Records
---
Amino acid sequence: MASPSLVPDALQHLADTLRSLPPHTSLGNTTLLSSLLHQFSVDVGPLLSIVLENERDALLSNSSWISTHLSELQHLISRLPPSTVAHASHQELVTFIKFDSLKYTFWTTYTADIYTLLLLFIIAIIAKLLFNFGLRKAAVDRTQAALSAKYGHEVDREVARSALKKYVGSMFVVASRSSLD
């Protein structure tokens, strides 16, 4: 891993290389470019110390986190099958630990989409129950009389009820399709 402290040396080396090129190369003004690179390395120098300090702090915080949680990580790895641990790469072990450390239960939900779908199903169930219990006896009787007149023989009450449900249900589908247009 390259360290940010090497940036000024790399820029200086690039500037020296540009100065050593023959003057007839098609790079343009190499002396101006090398002086600009030198000036850039001088300007970036103070910022690199801050970057180096932040890099050191990040490494120290990572190592302190690992030392704090090492026993927990060992416990999580010990719960995995030995054959999996033996043949897994580092990245696979990290993925296994991430999945194994999650505490999902039956009640765990992680997106609002689940709540939305659950609400829509609850609304559909309530509407279906209200529709089934909301058919009045008079409406079923009128449907039974209309079907009996249409077919010329007595229609069973349950047949009339199911025909009424189908008719009203198809009206809901037509209404929902027309509202989408």
---
Amino acid sequence: MPISPSPQGGSSSPPQGIGGSGSYPINTSNAVAIASGVTRFIMPGGQGQLSATETLVEGSVPVNGTFKQIEVRVATNANTGDTPFTLRLNNADTVLSVTYGNIETGVKRLATNVTATQGQTYSIEVTTVGAGAIDDMFITLEFEPS
């Protein structure tokens, strides 16, 4: 069951059943190309919502918990440099990050715990370096309420 973020710092309600045991996926898909040499922020749970301004696409953590994993699938990558995908909490990078190299595609995942408290903002940052765009991405964050 996904956590529904609300953009622009609004509040969001936990999904039914949250607060019990178990983890919940937060899925994001994006078929919009991200050009080279830019930083973009993606709304967790959104569909193709990109912004150069993080506050326009942030979600709000509805309950205390732990982000446990990030998984990214990239189908199209013409970028000649590294492209990290990073979970951000309160406008700061966390250790949940995976990086795609020169024209690399496929699925990457990293499992490590990042504690989050109710009301913190979160987003996914994508920074492209090099020439060429990256496109057709699917991102999943795993969140476990405490």
---
Amino acid sequence: MFIAWFVCGFALISRSIWWERLGVRAWFERWKPLFVLFFLVCTATLIVEGACAIGRRIRLRWELANLQADQMGVLLKYAGNCRSTLYFPADNGVVQDLARMGVLYRSSEIGSAEHGFAYSVTPAARRQVRKLLLRSLLE
């Protein structure tokens, strides 16, 4: 999307003499309103996607800052073992809450009741957990 936005923006602000040299000035002038519309749609989409990403990051920070002790215990297993994937039973409510929050995700649907399922911590959550651990160690 960014590349399309950049190309449309560049085409709209470029000099008409360039289009003349390329031999496409008449074609470009004919389709210029469509370029403008596409540029505006791409701009709006990029703004909305950026706002959503910022919102997800803020929500994740807030949820990680307000974790319960058992939820933080699960995340400490990831940090303590320096691993991004651990196995938990499917009926573990704490892990399910963390998955619902977007902190963990089930990395594979293959698993069993005996050995559990593989749950991985998201990269953004891993960074936030490291920051929280460092902050708690420094206090």
